[in-house]
Design brief:
Elements lengths: L1 H17 L6 E4 L4 H11 L7 E3 L3 H9 L3 E2 L8 E6 L3 E2 L5 E2 L6 H9 L1 E9 L15 E5 L4 H10 L7 E4 L16 E6 L6 H9 L4 E4 L1 E2 L5 E5 L5 E4 L1
Helix pairs in contact: 1-2
Bound molecules: D-4-phosphoerythronic acid (DER).
The site of D-4-phosphoerythronic acid has 16 residues, from helix 4.
Length: 234
């Protein structure tokens, strides 16, 4: 499909332009686009010696099933480059992430990297966060606090959410449980004028572990187009 083709060309270009044989530690994000990044890494023999750091159980599987060297962020707290997907990206390279409920480990691994690179298909390009991705900003919360966080989201922020929803699992009864044993609340605000400020406000609410707003972090973003070309934002 055009979307899969877009994911692939973006991922391949990002790997080819950002990972070299002299890198020692690379962070691997989560989701479906990053699968193509690992596919490209596996095609390049000179990248096989590098240690790869996961951002989720899914990401860990990608690394181990590819036969790549798996490392932990505890062993390698300094990362050369982290490559990850995104749910929506604005022209300042602010992003909504967490569609796959992995944003806590993704944030740790992205922040530990000297260079953070995002890859996506054309659907993720946005003029303002909250206009293309309308499922809500993913917020990872400690389970016992999810109700009080929900209340705080609806009463203590400078902007009111249009909805706040506890993310329910599809093939498991009850809520989605993250790799860290937590819940996810999706809060939709409509177009977000100041994603950085909103992210900071939400992060301060008691019970919140991490917010899926990755602002002022990425150095470059690759978007695969339907015609197989790649649009690069930096
Ligand atoms: O959940 C996440 O943060 C993923 O990186 C997600 O944002 C991208 O998933 P996709 O590559 O399957 O669109």
């Amino acid at each position: 499909s055009a979307v899969e083709k877009g994911k692939k060309v973006a991922a391949y270009r990002a790997v080819d332009e950002n990972i070299t044989a002299d890198h020692k530690v690379i962070g691997i994000g989560s989701g479906s686009t990053v699968v193509y990044a690992v596919e490209r890494i596996l095609q390049r023999k000179e990248l096989q010696h590098i240690v790869y750091i996961p951002t989720s159980f899914q990401s860990r599987l990608l690394i181990t099933e590819g036969g790549l060297t798996l490392g932990s962020i505890e062993q390698f707290p300094e990362i050369d480059v982290t490559i990850d997907g995104a749910d929506e990206v604005d022209s300042q390279l602010n992003a909504i992430k967490g569609g796959g409920a992995c944003q806590f480990q993704e944030m740790v691994v992205a922040k530990a990297a000297k260079k953070f690179v995002m890859i996506a298909d054309y659907r993720k390009k946005s003029k303002s966060l909250g206009t293309e991705w309308v499922k809500g900003v993913p917020i990872e919360v400690v389970p016992l606090a999810y109700k009080v966080v929900m209340q705080a989201l609806n009463s203590q922020l400078s902007v009111k959410p249009q909805f706040t929803k506890l993310r329910m699992a599809v093939q498991k009864a009850g809520p989605v449980v993250t790799d860290n044993g937590n819940f996810v609340i999706d809060a939709h605000f409509g177009p977000i004028a100041d994603p950085y400020k909103l992210g900071q406000e939400i992060k301060l609410l008691t019970g919140v572990l991490e917010v899926g707003l990755f602002c002022r972090m990425a150095e470059i973003a690759y978007f695969g187009e339907e015609d197989g070309s790649v649009d690069i934002w930096k």
